[in-house]
Amino acid sequence: MSHLSPEPSLTSLSWVPCGQGTTPEDPVGCRGADVPGHTACLAHLADAERDAYLYSLPPGADIDHSGTTFTDPLLDSLLDALRDPATGFPRLGDARFISATFQGNAEFEFVTFQGEATFRSAIFKGDAEFGAATFQSDVEFRSTTFKGDAVFQAAIFACTANFTVATFQSGARFDGANFQGGARFDGANFQGNAEFASTDFQGDTGFVSVAFQRDARFELAVFQGDARFEMAVFERAASLGPFVCAGRVKLSGAVFGSPVTLSLAARRLECRRTRWSSTAEIRLRYATVDFAQAVFEYPLTIAAEAEPFSLPAGQPVSEQALADAPSATVRMISLRGVDAAHLVLSDINLAMCMLTGTVHLDQIQLEGTCSFNDVPRTQWRRWPPVRFTQRRILFEERIWRVSEPAAAPGWNAAVSGTVRVGPAQLAPVYRALRKAFEDGKNEPGAADFYYGEMEMRRHDRINTTRAERGLLSGYWLLSGYGLRASRALGWLAAAMLVTVVLLVGFGLPKDSPKQEATGTVPPGGGKVTFEIGKADPQNPTGERFTGERFDKAINVTLNSVVFRSSGQDLTTTGTYIEMTSRVTEPVLLGLAVLAVRNRVKR
Among the four 119, 128, 144, 298, which has the fewest Cβ within 10 Å? Predict the structure, then answer.
């Protein structure tokens, strides 16, 4: 990739060119800017005139040597003329080196640029040494070509530093640099290693459409504003970070062509439409992550770090830029459009994550303590009070319930600016997450997602028939879809209490019927035949609710729960009461046992 600008013509120049060395093929000749008061550039001035000009320059003077070709001795003589006796280092005012060419090594170490420094479209054929240089105003390296190493170690950029469309054909070293006013690297091409270790970016920093063709290292870099890497291409980056960003790290549209480890602490990480062409591991702190439409074909792990990052030497990464953050929790807010077949999440908060539209969600791996949203607590401000059984839910379900108050009175969380979906879209998501937990041998964890799936089916008026919704409503009411043992036991206790009351009132006879023998004695004696029978039980006419009758009713009811006959004589009404009890109460007991099993099985 090359960003070389075409040779400027005479009409495109903003300065008066020297014009030395014209030829029919090149009628412009030397494009170096004329030295003030002369008709030649600094490179083509006579020695005496050049010495006189350099002698006239005080430290901090404004200079314009655009288009000039500098050799090592020529640049050294210019910087020596501008050397400040107080510090021993060169000091420049406004410095214009537009389209200048530096033949050898350009040594600007410890140089102070008090005014604007412009190196637009300049060419550094050797190393560009700007170590510990100070740029007190804006500096521009737009469309500049660095053929040798570009060294900006410990440089201070007090205002905007513009490296847009710059080409770094060898190494680029910015370790220890301080960007106080923001840095722009949009469209830059790093063909060698790019090192930003211990760099401090205090303004917004842009690496939009940057191509890192080898390693890009940002160890201990600190971005006080946003760090933008949109559309950047990391062809051989083995690691990115650890670094700290007080604002947003934007990797949307970026491409990682090789295995990479990304370590950062930031308020927000945007990876929309990011492409990962190999395995990757993303280790985060504090960040709110947007992974919508990201593409990866190999395993990718996103994990939250419990402790601050440290470098191989053991020194910790300072997180002072994030001192006001409430916690180091990592939150995922969107996985829409992602194929989660190779995705591993570890210790990630998914309470506000949008999961509808995620492909192969049943194959996602959730490690550690990945948390989800919860239902609201008991709403005591309503009458009667509304109590919700605690369970893990999707953020989209909370959005839907808030937007549809009739679905669940009492869900009073305010949600705005999000895409709303309904039960028809949420049921498959719950089903996929349930399967993911079951495949991970975490069936108790899958219970909440089964509950959510059944809830969405019960409320789905598109794919669920009225009869099926009625059955699901009954299943929910009686036992919480076989997951709420307390609910089933409550209904069982209520059913038994009703059975006891009905038996005491109507099912037990007044007195236990006694056997009676009847027969006819033939005249004169002979064989006597007796018929033994029992009178029909009679309903009581006096006091019904006595301790004795209550004890008998409990005996009948408890036997009916386990399909046993108590042997107690009952009235006709009592017989039907017992039959009904022997059908319903064992079912409720079974639902309670099933709910307990579903909660504790492994």
Answer: 298
Peptide bond into 36 cis (omega under 30): no
Nearest 5°: the CA angle 27, 28, 33 is 165
Q: State yes or no: pLDDT of 6 exceeds 50.
A: no
Give the mean model confidence (pLDDT) for residues 522-528: 70
Return the structure tokens found at 99: 């389209």
Query: Who contacts 465 (Cβ-Cβ below 8 Å, separation ≥6)?
Result: none
pLDDT in tens, 256-280: 888 989 999 999 999 999 999 999 9
Q: Is it the case that residue 403 has pLDDT exceeding 70?
A: yes
Looking only at Cα atoms, what is the longest distance across the chain? 173
pLDDT band at residue 419 using 50, 70 and 90 as cut-offs: low
User: Computed over its alpha carbons, how large is the radius of gyration of the chain?
Assistant: 41
Contact 129, 106 (CB under 8 A): yes
In this predicted structure, what is the pLDDT of residue 4?
A: 40
Pair of tokens at residue 233: 């291409």
6, exposed or middle or buried, with CB in 10 Å at 0-12, 13-18, 19+?
A: exposed
Scanning 252-335, the segments in alpha helix (DSSP H) are none
Whether the predicted pLDDT of 486 surpasses 90: no
d(CA 593, CA 396): 32
Euclidean distance between CA atoms 37 and 53, whole angstroms: 9
Average pLDDT in the chain: 84
Q: Coil, strand, or helix at residue 13?
A: coil
Confidence grade of residue 112 (pLDDT, cut at 50, 70, 90): very high
**Matching residue, tokens 């480890």:** 261
In degrees, rounded to 5, the angle at the alpha carbon of residue 143 between the alpha carbons of residues 142 and 145 is 115
Q: Comparing C-alpha atoms, which of 334, 453, 341, 332 is closest to residue 392?
A: 453
| Phi, psi (deg, nearest 5) at residue 21 | 75, 35
Helices (H), 95-244: none
Token pair listed for 532: 């033994």
* 317, 310 contact by CB (below 8 A): yes
405: confidence class by pLDDT, cuts 50, 70, 90: low
User: Of 67, 21, 13, nearest to 42 (Cα)?
Assistant: 67
Cα 181 to Cα 502: distance, rounded to the nearest angstrom: 84
Alpha-carbon span 397 to 339, nearest angstrom: 21
Sequence-distant (6+) residues with CB within 8 A of 524 are none
Burial environment of residue 377 by CB neighbours within 10 A (0 to 12, 13 to 18, 19 or more): exposed
